[in-house]
Structures are given as structure tokens and as C-alpha cells.
Specification:
The complex is a heterotrimer of chains A (147), B (106) and C (252). Chain B is mostly beta strands and 106 residues long. Helix content of chain B is 0%, strand content 49%. In chain B, β6 and β7 form a beta hairpin. Chain C has helices at 2-13, 31-38, 45-56, 67-71, 74-77, 98-109, 120-131, 144-158, 168-172, 206-216, 227-239; strands at 87-88, 95-96, 179-180, 183-184, 195-197, 202-204, 250-251. Classes of the chains: A alpha+beta (147), B mainly beta (106), C mainly alpha (252).
Chain lengths: 147, 106, 252
């Protein structure tokens, strides 16, 4: 990146404000949050599709979409979808509760991301099994920085 | 009293899976931001979102500060019958805002 | 770098030329943010428009008259209004921005307390009024008095300011399309205000955006409602003449 002295001054001003933010989640804390969600049960990768931009221009509002492969019948449906991150101040993002009346296991929302990091989506099935998907998002303009 | 933008598709067919989009006006203040005086601005977030369809809960969500200001939540549900959808947003102080939408199923 | 500046100058000097090198800030955004603006149910700016509509119909002040009492249905009466501001106020014979006009109506005609600039009431009302001109071309009035205001705005636009000694033109004419850090530099056409800025997580006015830029340049920002701020807006709206109004826009 071609950074001129002027650009550096502006970036340094932003960075000094960013240093004021408190301690934050880590990949380990994210794993603890996931374990709390799953009760420590094993999680298999797959069946979950996490749609989130690979490169995000502003971390303040990052749209995402989760779709889980499930027939959503009474006997076979997604009961919960949990979202987790590894670098924001807290590892939890949201938990969505679905029912067979959902028809499709699909949710969309917008989240804040304060740095390039992995986002994990975990789906709990009605038979108690867990499936996941993980995505790395590159954040060029982080959230959590005071303007 | 803040309002929400809610989209319920017009005249879905019985049994059709419809997408409901909601956008609620709320700052989702994380509690991590320092204010002008250097003190942290207290957390003020929506923690719970619930949608009932003719009285039955069809969808709910628990939100944390990582959800963006003016939370956008979109979900699907089966258009089973005509009636009323009730949406509620509850904040971390326990206050709830409610908005309803009617649904006309063919 | 200079190619774009030349193109913009040519574009302004010869409006008859088919090729318009001017691009909205919309074109510099990623597809996710563009999609957010295009969908009225996902655009957070529309929440302010909704609020503004309620305020429009609510009686206010000593007169207990609502905006609707005089102006009726905003979709008719306010159509095109935001597209032709700033304008000369016939009473004071000075340039006024749309927010200033709303404040004047509140105070003088509704006999209500003056709404604060950047306050929720004024932002909601200007978002609602602005929305009624969405998709219309920016149409600055051809008024000789306004020309003087615009000239002042042009001077401000090209003047170096602040500790960093930057002018608006250096970024927004000479380096538009480039990057400042990680942020793309747009051409600075105010064709979507008031807008929802992701950086603010809120709706804000053009003057708020000026304050951001000027603080960034370590310059003394223009006071809210000041003649400088209105002059700069008048210049920028003339520079953006004919471009489509996108209010309420979304920007990163």
C-alpha cells in the first residue's frame, strides 16, 4: 500500500482511538462460546451455508445470510442457528430459534466486525446433532472505532 | 416510540414459504464505546426478538452487541392461514416494543 | 489522476456533451452496500423517512398545525423541493438550505421551538421531504444572488485548509477513484443527503459530513447552519446539477 505522510497521520489518529477499545474475544474464547452453545457435543462441518462477503468495506454493517440444508419437518428440522466471531469484544453474535413452521432454515442479519476474522455459524438439529460452517472476512474499515 | 419497517408478502398462497424482513430503529449501543467525557456509554441493545403467528411463536432470536445498529432480521415462515403477525423487540432493560402486521393467505 | 479532473471540468463546461464523467458515491460502494440502499425495507435511512412522515402529520407548536395543514400531501407538494435547494429565501434575501427552511417553518409558521440541526426531529423531516425528490435530477435555481453564494462555495472548495493543508478539490477532484487508507475517495456529489452512513450507524446531514472531513484535515469545521456550509453546499449542488437525487442514500 502506498501510504503518504498525510495518509499516515490520518490513519495514526484512527489507530490511537482504536487502542482505547477493551480486550476482546480470541479464537479460544470463541470456542468456549461455541461449547456453551453445543454443550460440548461434537460439531461436524457441512450442511450449513454461511454467506458473507469475503471483503467488507465497512465493518459497521456486514450483511450475512445462513441457509441450512434441512427438510424442516417435525421429525427433522433445525432448532437453533448460532453465530460466533473471534475478534470482536464478545464472541457471541446471535442465536436464532427456528421451528418446523419456518419452512426453510434460513436467516439473514447484519453484524459488526472490528477486524479481519473468522465467523462461525452452528446449526443444531432436532436430533441433537450439530453442524457448522466457517468463513473468513477481511475487514478494511473496522467497526468499534470512534469517529 | 420507534417504528420498524416490516415486509410481509402480499397474498401468499397457503403452504407457501414466505420471507419476512424486519428493520427496527435502535442504536444497539454496545457498552464498549467511550463517550465525549471518556466514560463508557451504557449498553442499550435489543436482546430478544420474537414473532408470533396467530398467537404461536414461529421465530425468535437472541441478539448480542455485535448486531448492527437498526437491527435487520430476515427469516422464513410457512403461510399457514390468514391472521396477525406480532413482532416484539425487548431491550436489555426489559422494555418491549411491539408492532403487528396482518397476513392474507389465499 | 489529472485525467479525471480534466474530464470533470469538461463535463461541467459543456453540459451538452453526452459523456458524463460524474459518478455518484453509489458507484464507489461495494455490492452489499448498494443492495442495502436499493431495498426500501433494508435501507436504514427509510426508518427516518417513516418518522418524518409521522412528524409531518403531527400538530406542532402554538398553532397546533401540522406540516400537512398547509402543505397537504407531501408526495405532491414536496416533489422536487429538495432537488432545488439551497435557494434564496425571499424574506432575508440570503441563501438557505432545506434544513434552514424547515427550521424557519417550525419557528415562524407553526410557532414551535427551533429543532436542533443534527437532531432527530430535523433529520427525520428532511429525510421525509428529501425522499419526495428521490430519482429526480438535482435542479439548482438559476438566481443571480445564488451565483454569489456558489462562487464563495467554489473558493472554499479549492482552498487549502487545516493543519494537513488539504483542499476538498485535492481529494475529490484530483484523487477521486483513488483511496485514502482503505476508503475509496468518491467525487463528493451531495446527491443523497440526508443519508445513512455506516460509519455513523445513523442518518446524518451533509454538514455533518463536512465536519467529519474537516476534522480529518485538522481544520476548524464550519459551524452548523453557517453561511460557509451553505455556500459550499450550493457550490456542490451546482456541480452535481442533473445528477439523480438518491435521498435517503446509504454510504459506507
Amino acid at each position: 500500500m502506498n501510504t503518504t505522510r498525510r495518509q499516515f497521520t490520518l490513519l495514526a489518529a484512527g489507530a490511537s482511538i482504536a487502542l482505547m477499545t477493551p480486550a476482546h474475544a480470541t479464537p479460544e474464547k470463541m470456542q468456549l462460546a461455541i461449547d456453551a452453545f453445543t454443550g460440548g457435543k461434537p460439531v461436524k462441518e457441512g450442511r450449513v451455508k454461511l454467506d458473507i462477503s469475503l471483503l467488507v468495506e465497512n465493518g459497521n454493517s456486514v450483511p450475512l445470510n445462513v441457509l441450512v440444508d434441512s427438510p424442516m419437518t417435525k421429525d427433522n428440522h433445525v432448532t437453533r442457528i448460532g453465530l460466533f466471531n473471534e475478534k470482536n469484544p464478545l464472541p457471541d453474535v446471535a442465536i436464532f430459534n427456528l421451528t418446523p413452521r419456518s419452512g426453510r432454515a434460513q436467516i439473514a442479519t447484519r453484524m459488526r466486525l472490528n477486524d479481519t476474522q473468522f465467523i462461525t455459524a452452528i446449526a443444531e438439529m432436532s436430533d441433537g446433532t450439530f453442524f457448522s460452517a466457517k468463513s473468513e472476512v477481511i475487514v478494511t474499515m473496522p467497526a468499534c472505532v470512534e469517529e | 416510540m420507534a417504528r420498524a419497517l416490516i415486509n410481509v408478502p402480499a397474498k401468499p398462497k397457503r403452504g407457501e414459504i414466505i420471507e419476512i424482513k424486519t428493520l427496527m430503529s435502535h442504536p444497539m449501543e454496545t457498552g464498549f464505546r467511550p463517550g465525549m467525557d471518556g466514560q463508557l456509554i451504557p449498553r442499550d441493545i435489543i436482546e430478544k426478538f420474537v414473532c408470533t403467528y396467530n398467537g404461536e411463536v414461529v421465530f425468535s432470536a437472541l441478539l448480542h452487541p455485535a448486531i448492527t445498529a437498526n437491527p435487520f432480521i430476515s427469516f422464513t415462515t410457512i403461510a399457514t392461514e390468514s391472521g396477525t403477525l406480532v413482532f416484539s423487540w425487548t431491550d436489555n432493560k426489559g422494555e418491549t416494543q411491539v408492532q403487528t402486521a396482518s397476513i392474507q393467505v389465499e | 489522476m489529472n485525467r479525471l479532473a480534466c474530464l470533470i471540468l469538461i463535463g461541467m463546461a459543456l453540459p451538452a456533451v453526452a459523456q458524463d464523467a460524474r459518478k455518484s458515491g453509489f458507484d464507489f460502494m461495494g455490492p452489499d452496500t448498494q443492495a442495502m440502499q436499493k431495498d426500501d425495507l433494508a435501507n436504514p435511512g427509510m426508518l427516518s423517512v417513516l418518522e418524518g412522515e409521522t412528524l409531518w402529520n403531527t400538530p406542532a407548536g402554538k398553532t397546533q398545525k401540522s406540516c400537512a395543514s398547509c402543505h397537504g400531501d407531501a408526495t405532491q407538494s414536496m416533489k422536487g423541493v429538495a432537488a432545488r435547494y439551497p435557494a434564496i429565501d425571499t424574506k432575508t434575501q440570503s441563501a438557505m438550505d432545506l434544513s434552514g427552511r424547515i427550521i424557519q417553518c417550525r419557528v415562524e409558521r407553526q410557532e414551535a421551538p427551533a429543532p436542533q440541526r443534527e437532531g432527530r426531529e430535523l433529520l427525520s423531516l428532511s429525510a421525509f421531504v428529501g425522499r419526495q425528490s428521490r430519482d429526480m435530477p438535482i435542479s439548482p435555481p438559476q438566481d443571480a444572488k445564488l451565483a454569489a453564494t456558489r462562487a464563495q462555495g467554489a473558493t472554499l472548495y479549492s482552498a487549502r485548509m487545516g493543519q494537513l493543508n488539504f483542499s476538498c478539490a485535492q481529494c475529490h477532484d484530483d484523487n477521486a477513484g483513488g483511496h485514502l487508507g482503505a476508503a475509496p475517495i468518491p467525487q463528493a456529489h451531495p446527491n443523497g443527503y440526508p443519508l445513512y452512513r455506516l460509519e455513523w450507524q445513523a442518518l446524518g446531514s451533509l454538514q455533518r459530513r463536512f465536519r467529519n472531513c474537516m476534522s480529518g484535515m485538522r481544520a476548524e469545521p464550519f459551524a452548523a447552519g453557517s453561511t460557509e456550509a451553505i455556500a459550499l453546499e450550493a457550490f456542490l449542488m451546482e456541480r452535481a446539477a442533473g445528477m439523480r437525487l438518491e435521498t435517503p442514500a446509504v454510504r459506507p
